[in-house]
Specification:
The protein has 285 residues and is mostly helical. It has one domain. It is 75% helix and 3% strand. It has eleven helices and two strands. The protein has helices at residues 2-32, 39-57, 60-81, 90-112, 138-160, 162-172, 174-179, 184-210, 216-231, 236-256, 261-275; strands at 128-131, 134-137. Strand 1 and strand 2 form a beta hairpin. Helix 2 packs across helix 8 and helix 5 (138-160) packs across helix 6 (162-172). It is globular and about 60 Å long.
Length: 285
Amino acid sequence: MSILLSSVLNGLSFAALLFLIAGGFTLLYGIMRLLNLAHGALYLWGAYLAAAVISGTGNYLLAVLVAGGVVGIATVIGGVGLFARVQGNELREVLLTIAVSLVLADAALAVWGGHPVGVQAPEFLRGAADFMPVAFPIYRLFLMGLALAVGFGLWYLIERTSVGALLRACVDNRAMLASLGVNVRRLYWFVWMAGGFLAGVAGLLGSIVFGIAPGVDVQILLLALVVVVLGGLGSLSGAALGSLVVGLSYSFATVYAPELLYFIIFGPMLILLVIRPQGLRGANA
């Protein structure tokens, strides 16, 4: 019973982290139809920047602002200066984001070296809460609550605010929105900034669980891709559902069938691509 409960809690906390990682990825695709394969590298840079700030100052709030802000601003600059030039050509978008990912990964290796870096949770989130018959880390409970808050915030922004209405209209008919006098370019800047900010902050949050090392960006990107493909590209509810599927599958496979871990994670995605290519919550093609 304790192993089962521990597996469920670990799966839910991992799902929460996956949703926070995939949130920015989903936002960019949902609004701009951009498959950003540099998302893992943005996560990596956010993690390294946050670790540097925490090591130098011990201030976690400043680390959040630096990691999210710097990565967000860099994403806006990259979006305006690079991706806007190839927007609409899917092959060029994919190749460009892969190239940016490789450049950022090598730049991080040059700056911080190849040694793994560990990041501790804030002091008030250390320790464990007693869930009879298991003790569960408080930080992982915090991740669950934060994922719920971020998910609700993104849903409210997109579905219940005037900015969200403009963003949805931009997806449906950008030319019509521009003809009404709306500055579509600023809306895109906002989306770039939000997606980059979420990636940078996710880097900090994930580094406390996984640590930081070269290659983490690729692992994170693969997991984010599985999440969004399962849930449906561009769907926040799909990202949440995909995160639950992957998180729980990963947790139970690690305990009960570690030799089949990657099959259990990627197998459902392969089957779903054949049966329902648009994903569990994606719109029909």
